[in-house]
Amino acid sequence: MNKSTILVVEDDPSISKLISITLETHDYLYRTAKSGNEAILEILSNKPDIIILDLGLPDMDGIDIIKKVRSWSSIPIIVVSARGEDRDKIEALDAGADDYLTKPFSVDELLARLRVSLRRIQKDDELKLKEKSIFINGRLKVDYLSHSVLIEEQEIHVTPIEYKLLCLLAKNSGRVLTYNFILKEVWGIHDNDASALRVFMATLRKKIEEKPAKPQIIQTHIGVGYRMVRIEERKE
Q: Where on the chain is 4-aspartylphosphate found, per UniProt (predicted)?
């Protein structure tokens, strides 16, 4: 079954039933709303993946619903309306609708528009995943998915311990991490002796810093620990 949930906002029972049967036949999950207020409640409560929206609702205009939804969400909105004038389409699209179908409509065309919206959702999710999987800080890039480290887009070799240190600092960039915290997270030990940590940090800096003697990326807090400095902080 398609895991995407479609909210059908339509006050005409025959059209609502037509769309619902079409969605059910093609294994979409769906919910329905007959008014604007009901639609807003559904959107806030159940967070559908796509909205199919009629503009002519009994309690409020569909344009107002689009504007309300766009104030907090980028969920795809497909308008299905009897309003066929260009100015109506432009108003809906300018308000934030993603697509516009005029009644009467072909169910095949509606399904095609749904597939387009679903592809957009998938691409957006993939982009978000990619953004979360890559850390960039000035000349440094850490790709968590491929476990690779790049300096100015050139991959460099780091040892497993160096990689763990770098990832820990990157995921906590801007925060001072104490010696004990780093030792526990990387080696799984509580130890006041940070001499081994200092050795690994020195070798790591030689690989990622432009001038290891004057580090710009990993800052030492003497007697406390280390901090990954966001490069933009240096520019302020």
A: 54
